[in-house]
Amino acid sequence: MTATVTVGEFSRLTHLSVKTLHHYHEIGLLAPASVDPSSGYRRYETSQVEVAQLIRRLRELRMPLPEVRAVVDAADGGSREETLRAHLDRMERELAHTRDVVTSLREMLTLEPAALAVEYRFIPAFRAYGVSGHVEREGIGSWCEFAFGRLGEIAARDGIVATSGAAYSDEFFTDDSGQVVAFLPVAPDQAPAEGVELVDLPGGFFAIAVHTGPFTDFDRSYGALGSHVAEYCEVATGPIRELYVVGPGDGPDPASYRTEICWPIRQIPTSPAAKG
Amino acid sequence: MTATVTVGEFSRLTHLSVKTLHHYHEIGLLAPASVDPSSGYRRYETSQVEVAQLIRRLRELRMPLPEVRAVVDAADGGSREETLRAHLDRMERELAHTRDVVTSLREMLTLEPAALAVEYRFIPAFRAYGVSGHVEREGIGSWCEFAFGRLGEIAARDGIVATSGAAYSDEFFTDDSGQVVAFLPVAPDQAPAEGVELVDLPGGFFAIAVHTGPFTDFDRSYGALGSHVAEYCEVATGPIRELYVVGPGDGPDPASYRTEICWPIRQIPTSPAAKG
DNA sequence: CTTCCACCCTCCGGTAACCGGAGAGTCAAA
DNA sequence: TTTGACTCTCCGGTTACCGGAGGGTGGAAG
Hints:
- The structure is a homodimer.
- Chain A is of the alpha+beta class and about 280 residues long.
- The first copy, chain A, has helices spanning about 5-15, 20-25, 50-60, 65-75, 75-110, 140-160, 170-175, 220-230; strands at about 5, 35, 40-45, 120-125, 125-135, 165-170, 175-185, 195-200, 205-210, 240-245, 260-265.
- Chain A has 3 domains: about 5-75, Multidrug-efflux Transporter Regulator, Chain: A, Domain 2, CATH 1.10.1660; about 75-110; about 120-265, Alpha-Beta Barrel (Multidrug-efflux Transporter 1 Regulator Bmrr, Chain A).
- In chain A, about 40% of the residues lie in helices and about 25% in strands.
- In chain A, the strands form 2 sheets. An 8-stranded antiparallel β-sheet of chain A has the order 4-9-11-10-6-7-5-8.
- In chain A, a hairpin with a 6-residue loop joins strand 2 (about 35) and strand 3 (about 40-45).
- In chain A, helix 3 crosses helix 4 and helix 4 packs antiparallel against helix 5.
- Chain A starts with a strand and ends in an 11-residue tail after the last strand.
- At the A-B interface, helix 1, helix 3, helix 5, helix 7 and helix 8 of A face helix 1, helix 3, helix 5, helix 7 and helix 8 of B.
- The structure holds a DNA duplex (30 and 30 nucleotides).
- Chains A, B: This is MerR family transcriptional regulator.
């Protein structure tokens, strides 16, 4: 029969703190083999050391406990691998993102603020094929691939040539998830098509900034446009639109991308300095 | 004079949620330009959009608020750059670590558990030059560089040739920070030296595992040794020792490193299966 | 056989950076 | 004046634990 040890010993064996072991017991992730009914003392079996080690190592990876549980409970090696790989992917995406933002931040702090050209435009209402959904900000990349993939198919089939775009609700930005509509303009009498919606985009005034280059430093243009709008315009409510003038569909080089960021405003200011 | 806006508008302008703006007000990171004394309504100036944007972008980098505050309050660009760079470094270290552990985890899950050879040994008490300190687990790498750098100097000066090592208190592992002593064995009558202590390491029985290769998958050997000790030995209290048989000082190739991990036990088990 | 001390227990509160909701007050248009 | 959108404060919850208070246990020493 296997030997049993107290929390303290188990802690030394596994390098998990006693508090942590209490916690894992409480949430049912790693329960001691037995608990003395009168004293409440926990007793762990030496065979549990291995599981505890696994948990500790996963936690060192900053893997959330629910996922740790999934790995620990996983019956087959396949689903373990899967959870693990998903976590690794997430971490790597995070690092890539971090690197991008740091780079653009460094520029922002050291360089003079790039003179961002802002123009004002009235965009009339128009009809479009649309793919809409409630999207997490983190997953916007893959969602766009999906949405524009579908729109691209329809466009190719119907021979539509137009600049596609997307409308992002405020919540998408402020709450990190919200309604997004990817759209492809069509004629006002366009017939519905399988697999996409037919949406009507309302007209209105917009302050528009052109972002050149990859999507990684979008934030900078957004920030600058936000500042500009705050300073010179009366803001309107409603989703912000992006128009993908030159995008992934038009060539492989992200440096050549051109995106128009359209911020809804109430009217066109009489002069750029009118409110400054 | 600059225009002022409500929280809601400011939220739309900056893509920070109202809740977040409340929070930043409360902690004094970004206070509104004015607060209506009767209604409590916050009013932000459009010129504050820029700071808010900066904060948002730093937060997107997962930079802790105290550091954000440091960047925002920084008078000169130099100290901004510094904080930024420190953060970037930390993130990259984290990723590298993540990658390492994932790799070794993948092995652990897919491969058969490597047959870890464990031997038992009585190590008599000995005297050593020591560098000790309370060390954070995160900073163990640079601390070791410092400690063994100093020990190396002394060794070179005195012509001492011995396998150096380090003793890690339990708290170092369980609490992520604790006492660590780097040591270099010397003769029992060794005279004290400037810049290092003279320490006496107690003798005792140890279960010893030899870890071959770089330090990145130390965890695996530790886990295996922990499991082994739990299964077959009576554990003793006291710090775990590492002996750097072949280490960074002996050659540039991490793959050739050899480290003995010494786990204190009460006595040598009569047979490996004695307790199994 | 007691006494000691290290160990163990549970419960409560706190951490970071907010989110969600309740309940109530405010503002501007209709 | 009424509606409805907006705002306020306060309270509790989130994750994965840590720290401490107050009090019970267990094995060894005296």
